[in-house]
Prior knowledge:
By secondary structure, this protein is of the alpha/beta class. It has two domains: 16-183, Rossmann fold, CATH 3.40.50.1970; 188-386, Dehydroquinate synthase-like, alpha domain. Helix content is 50%, strand content 11%. The protein has helices spanning 27-33, 45-49, 52-60, 77-90, 101-116, 188-207, 213-235, 240-260, 264-276, 280-294, 300-310, 319-336, 353-361, 376-386; strands at residues 16-19, 39-42, 64-68, 94-99, 125-126, 136-140, 152-157, 162-167, 175-178. The strands form two sheets. The chain has a six-stranded parallel sheet with strand order 1-9-6-4-2-3, sandwiched between helices. A three-stranded mixed sheet has the order 5-8-7. A hairpin with a 4-residue loop joins strand 7 and strand 8. The protein is globular and about 60 Å long.
Amino acid sequence: xxxxxxxxxxxxxxxxxxxxxxxxxxxxxxxxxxxxxxxxxxxxxxxxxxxxxxxxxxxxxxxxxxxxxxxxxxxxxxxxxxxxxxxxxxxxxxxxxxxxxxxxxxxxxxxxxxxxxxxxxxxxxxxxxxxxxxxxxxxxxxxxxxxxxxxxxxxxxxxxxxxxxxxxxxxxxxxxxxxxxxxxxxxxxxxxxxxxxxxxxxxxxxxxxxxxxxxxxxxxxxxxxxxxxxxxxxxxxxxxxxxxxxxxxxxxxxxxxxxxxxxxxxxxxxxxxxxxxxxxxxxxxxxxxxxxxxxxxxxxxxxxxxxxxxxxxxxxxxxxxxxxxxxxxxxxxxxxxxxxxxxxxxxxxxxxxxxxxxxxxxxxxxxxxxxxxxxxxxxxxxxxxxx
Length: 387
């Protein structure tokens, strides 16, 4: 039996999706549809250098109140606070984020401060808000984070040396514009690592203790799309049909984990990112098969579903055998897309592992893991295996 007979759940997915090549040209119409007039555009230096910023500024026309482009790879509280102050100075009534997860999370934090005032430090937590925040339109330039449809933001608190969460239904982006043309120039490694971020979202949504039928279906199809299209995108970034399917897969995986939540792999990725600066997608891609191994046999049924989506479950396979085939398939898939295999390849030193393990057990994501994590020793062991 997949689910308990008394299963109850809430599925939440309010974001409007606009998909198509060059759909970002419609950004001003989408802003106006939200009842807004002037949007601050949030992005990063890489997007500016790639020439993508100019396209969107042109499409916004007089609706562009200003550009905040000072977002680093791992955004921090001070960045969000500065961005919100800039947006208020510009008189913006909406936010457009153009970029990957760090840009989108910065914009989410700005949306709260533009509406509520104060500093981001005042809003760390879960479901603290009581009204809709500043309207936010997301234009993702990677296909992985799924942040365009999630209610959460993850931001580095340098004082704590740890990433903090804002999980707020009232701050879910109103609209996501998926334009494959904006991902065409994404380098192979970034394509692979952001794709593995989406894969991790889908797999962890399947094994979460909060999983439910709708998210299972969405996560499984996201995995199918990832397996079929990510290798194409890595080898030929100009294939916009495959790029588009990757964007859809990332968004579906985002919807899945936004409702089911993620767990140990993300807790570890957040922590090694805070301690060693490992990009989030690379950390997830390296750690995912190790986290799956840790969760057997508790998550065998979930990984058997993953095996079906991955195409590795053969007739007559029991759940454990199918689950093991899924773990092998994930590991082999990372090799196929030329993704880093070990944390040492990502610049991590062995003496950073213990601190990351300690942070992991206090990371909110870990509470949804299907196998209880009693203390940091289990996490440290996993880090050492992945090193």
